């Protein structure tokens, strides 16, 4: 289960554009090394390492030692847990309303064209 601390860590990690770009790259290139990742940014390797620490603390990045390198993988589960936490509750409410709107629109569209006696 996702806790408030975990949620805060995830939102904090996602708040910075560079960290979102790091997630995009690790999603597109699973197993990318830290060195390969750092080449995509105009900041120091230390800055990238700091961003990776934030992403790792939020459990959005999983790293795996490979000799002298570290391979990076995106872990989408914290985002999925946040999605499930709020959208299941709220989407049900809106889906009920959307269903009523859909049924009403379909009923209106099935009325004969000349039936304007209302």
Helix content: 55-70%
What structural category characterises the helix and strand content?
Answer: mainly alpha
Overall 3D form: elongated
Low-confidence region ranges: none
Overview in brief:
The protein has 118 residues and is mainly alpha-helical. It is built from five helices and three strands; from the N terminus they run H-H-E-H-H-E-E-H. The protein is elongated, with a radius of gyration of 23 Å.
Characteristic key phrases:
mainly alpha; 63% helix; Arc Repressor Mutant, subunit A; three-stranded antiparallel β-sheet
Tell me what you see in this structure:
There is one protein chain. By secondary structure, the protein is mainly alpha-helical. The protein has a domain at 4-75: Arc Repressor Mutant, subunit A, CATH 1.10.10. It is built from 5 helices and 3 strands, in the order ααβααββα. The chain has a 3-stranded antiparallel β-sheet with strand order 1-3-2. α1 (4-14) runs antiparallel to α4 (45-57) and α2 packs across α4 (45-57). The protein is elongated and about 75 Å long.
How is the secondary structure organized here?
Layout: H1 4-14, H2 17-28, E1 32-33, H3 34-38, H4 45-57, E2 61-66, E3 69-74, H5 77-109
Antiparallel strand pairs: 1-3, 2-3
